[in-house]
Amino acid sequence: AALLAAGVCSAAEPSPDPCADLCSEGYPCLQAQVECLVGADRVREAISSLKGACAATPGDGGLVRLLAWAYLRSGNEAWARKRLLEQIEADPDDAQSRAWAVWLLVQEGSVGQARRLLDAAPPAERVEDRQRLEILDVALLQLEAKPEEARSTLSALPQADDLYPEDRALLVDLRRQVL
User: Fold this and answer.
1) Is the confidence at residue 79, as pLDDT, over 90?
2) pLDDT tens across 41-78, in order?
3) Which of 9, 10, 68, 133 has the fewest CB within 10 Å, making it most exposed?
4) Nearest-CA neighbor of 83 among 133, 74, 134?
5) Does residue 11 sit in helix, strand or coil?
6) Is pLDDT above 90 for 117?
7) Residue 152 has pLDDT above 90, yes or no
8) What are the residues whose beta carbons fall under 8 Å from the beta carbon of 155, sequence distance 6 or more?
9) DSSP class per residue in 18-46
């Protein structure tokens, strides 16, 4: 009320939504809007928007991973896992969604299910995806108490070339633990 009286806010003009109209169209735009909504503690709106986008473009792994991320930010690991597993069933070659699902299963303590999902992966097309899946394989071997296999698999991985930047820290950590 004091702000209204001071003229700082106007009752007739709603404050602009900082998450609306960040850009015109496309995946990067949707990602920016979702990140804005999540950052503004409007996760339900982000999830609703992403569910609509996923329904409009079924099989889009990028959208499904963004939806899974929003579910994780809301604390709903079950729905994140469900959507990732549905995506993998629809597109078994989606190495990024597979990697996310494997990591999520490991975080949940479902190492056996993570192993089965990883072992069922067809060869990834992109070298970065292949390296990511190999890094996850080493992490699973560690959890499965198979140090020799973990050491052998890790020794075959490159130092840091051909990796997604976000995978470098995990690789360094695994090298410290295993080698």
Assistant:
1) yes
2) 999 999 998 999 899 999 899 999 999 999 999 999 99
3) 10
4) 74
5) coil
6) yes
7) yes
8) 179
9) TTTTSSSSSHHHHHHHHHHHHHTT-HHHH
Report residue 141 CA to chain centroid gap.
22
Are the C-beta atoms of residues 79 and 71 closer than 8 Å to each other?
A: yes
The three-state (H, E, C) secondary structure of 92-153, written as one string: CCCHHHHHHHHHHHHHCCCHHHHHHHHHCCCCCCCHHHHHHHHHHHHHHHHHCCCHHHHHHH
Q: From CA 18, how far away is CA 92, in angstroms rounded?
A: 37
Is-above-0.85 flag for pTM? no
Of 79, 57, 67, 2, residue with least CA distance to 34? 67
Quote the tokens at residue 71. Answer: 């579910």
